[in-house]
């Protein structure tokens, strides 16, 4: 019974995408066992305090911002089994960096709680200018299984300090949620089918080489509306927001927002779809939405 919950859980863009989600998910695959890098535990070197902002990258982000709220239905076949919410608010880190606090919550529906209760929570603190994470939290409650994990990312010393140890990481490494949101900033305008985007994702104690494959374009209808979308395939295996045992596809609006509209996971016993039910707080129009006038 746990497979449907993992579409929007950390066992699941989480990932996403991953989500996200999506997406994500939150939404990537380790490119072979040799590509996961697990470094030895490090002695702590604190860098809390004034962060030299001129040394950190600055990227353009027109896709998302504080106030964005996305609500999804999680459906297994014709059964509405759960609900997922992705929410963004403003925050700061070390009193110097403006950041976005992104919360991701997954709950099974009341009638399904009797079968398999899910109450998953994720949070990432994403640098608003550089689009890299400073902190990640994961709190999984699925049936009788629980897991709590945190990671502080020192993006100057390139160290991940987790609740389980300290590890070397590459510059601007992602967590499973920040990877999904970073993927939303990619311009897919000139992409062709099969083209990939490469990212790096840290989870548990290792850094994974990650790919997101562009599949094409499609118009789809969900409860929130009808949207023209780009379709991407997160190749998820470990630490992905949208991890599953089968293929995972994510539909993003084909405009500058790249808002997640659907996540579909093909599994051995069917498919799990997470469809956008409600969205609000976006700045400017979602031009990918189809007008039926």
Structure, briefly:
With 293 residues, the protein is mainly β. The protein has helices at 110-113, 176-183; strands at residues 69-76, 79-93, 97-108, 119-127, 133-142, 145-154, 159-162, 166-168, 196-203, 206-222, 225-234, 247-253, 260-267, 270-280. The protein has one domain (4-31, 55-277).
Give an overview of the whole structure.
By secondary structure, the protein is mainly beta. The protein has one domain (4-31, 55-277). The protein is built from two helices and 14 strands; from the N terminus they run E-E-E-H-E-E-E-E-E-H-E-E-E-E-E-E. It has helices at residues 110-113, 176-183; strands at 69-76, 79-93, 97-108, 119-127, 133-142, 145-154, 159-162, 166-168, 196-203, 206-222, 225-234, 247-253, 260-267, 270-280. Strands 8-7-6-5-4-3-2-1-14-13-12-11-10-9 form a 14-stranded antiparallel β-sheet. A hairpin with a 5-residue loop joins strand 4 (119-127) and strand 5.
List keywords for this structure.
4% helix, 2 helices, 45% strand, globular, 293 residues, disordered N terminus, mainly beta, 14-stranded antiparallel β-sheet
> H/E series, N to C?
EEEHEEEEEHEEEEEE
Side by side, the strands of the main sheet go 8-7-6-5-4-3-2-1-14-13-12-11-10-9
Which structural class fits the helix and strand makeup? mainly beta
- Helices, by number, come to 2
Reported for the largest beta sheet, the result is: 14 strands, antiparallel
Q: Low-confidence segments, ≥5 residues, pLDDT <50?
A: 1-48, 238-245
Alpha carbon gap, first and last residue: 42 Å
Provide mean pLDDT, rounded: 78
What number of domains?
Answer: 1
Strand residues, percent: over 45%
Gross geometry = globular
Radius of gyration, Cα only, in angstroms?
Answer: 18 Å
* Number of E-type strands: 14
Query: Approximately how much helix is present in the residues?
Result: under 10%
């Amino acid at each position: 019974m746990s497979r449907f919950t993992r579409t929007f859980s950390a066992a699941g863009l989480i990932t996403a995408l991953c989500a996200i989600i999506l997406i994500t998910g939150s939404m990537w695959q380790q490119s072979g066992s040799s590509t996961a890098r697990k470094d030895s535990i490090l002695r702590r070197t604190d860098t809390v305090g004034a962060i030299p902002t001129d040394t950190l990258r600055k990227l353009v982000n027109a896709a998302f911002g504080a106030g964005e709220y996305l609500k999804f239905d999680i459906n297994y076949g014709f059964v509405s089994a759960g609900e997922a919410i992705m929410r963004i608010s403003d925050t700061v880190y070390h009193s110097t960096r403006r950041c976005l606090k992104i919360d991701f919550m997954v709950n099974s529906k009341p009638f399904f709680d009797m079968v398999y209760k899910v109450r998953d929570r994720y949070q990432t603190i994403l640098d608003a200018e550089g689009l890299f994470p400073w902190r990640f939290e994961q709190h999984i409650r699925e049936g009788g299984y629980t897991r709590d994990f945190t990671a502080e990312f020192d993006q100057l010393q390139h160290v991940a300090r987790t609740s389980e140890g300290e590890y070397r990481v590459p510059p601007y490494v992602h967590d499973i949620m920040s990877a999904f949101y970073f993927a939303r900033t990619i311009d897919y305008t000139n992409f062709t089918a099969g083209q990939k985007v490469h990212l790096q994702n840290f989870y548990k104690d290792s850094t994974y080489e990650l790919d997101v494959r562009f599949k094409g374009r499609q118009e789809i209808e969900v409860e929130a509306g009808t949207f023209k979308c780009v379709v991407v395939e997160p190749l998820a295996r470990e630490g992905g927001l949208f991890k599953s045992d089968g293929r995972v596809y994510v539909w993003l609006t084909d405009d500058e927002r790249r808002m997640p509209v659907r996540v579909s996971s093909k599994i051995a016993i069917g498919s799990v779809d997470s469809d956008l039910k409600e969205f609000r707080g976006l700045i400017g129009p979602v031009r990918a939405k189809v007008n039926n006038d």
